Amino acid sequence: MKYSIALNFEDGVTRFIDCKVGEKVLDAAFRQRINLPMDCSDGVCGTCKCRCETGVYDLGDDYIEDALSEDEAQERQVLTCQMVPQSDCVLAVPVPSSTCKTGTGRFSASITRITRHADAALEVSFELDQAPVFLPGQYVNIDVPGSGQTRSYSFSSRPGEKHASFLIKQVPNGLMSSWLERARESEEVSMTGPLGSFYLREVTRPLLFLAGGTGLAPFLSMLEVLAERDEIQKVSLIYGVTRDQDLVMVEALKALTERLPNFSFVTCVADPQTFHPQQGYVTQHMTADMLNGGNVDAYLCGPPPMVDAVRQYFKDQGVVPANFHYEKFTPNAIVSGDADRGQ
Question: Which helix (H) or strand (E) holds 213?
């Protein structure tokens, strides 16, 4: 038996290692040639301190207070030289991946299907040469053949499968959009990743998902995982778009409500001329029940103005979610962030 440990570095790179039963994380990382920070390896210096965001573990008792205080332990800070996992875990490592002499993984993929959703988005499916391990919500950089450039896209499929899918916004004359217009099935691309600090954490309270446009993609991946786990916490999604034709993958969301009984979603369209029943922005469709008095973990993926508007809405309403994880995206870049209670 072994556990999967995700090491999420400061620069957004994630590497996965296997940890044997009874093995310390630092030893497991070194065994797999990832040099996590350390000086003493005896629980004395605190150099190897990380934060365990998800999972069950034994802190060990061979460390001193100066290395890890009781308050830090309560905040799920750990010393990797002492920590022994008792389940799969996710660790936030407060240094860049290059410091630990590691980097992103690289793998090949070939196109199996391109589904066009009017002029709004493309759902692109790939067969991969290996089943990538990633955290639901993370993204990869996809090489655009012949350009020497990459574009970043979140997985819309669940982790651990050799078939992966992405929801890609159609951008007029965009680099990836233009290439996909010419691409054929079985055409190959290279991907690097996984990347990003926007991913599903341990679920201990109701969830509020806020998606803007193709920012729906990472939530599809998260919902697949939650359905597979038979998650019992309430999950609410508000999916907002600019135009009627931008609403895509709604049937997939309906299917997920059948598999995940505590999941519900609302769609809305910002265009004042919409024929959609719900007009307006996501902030206009948040209910008190969804916010749960702040006892909710909020996740948002959308363009920068949407992220800024939601943050201002929470401030104006005097509601501070227990945790607020967000990802801003533009046609060429993705930026993740967190706003935890009290920050």
Answer: none
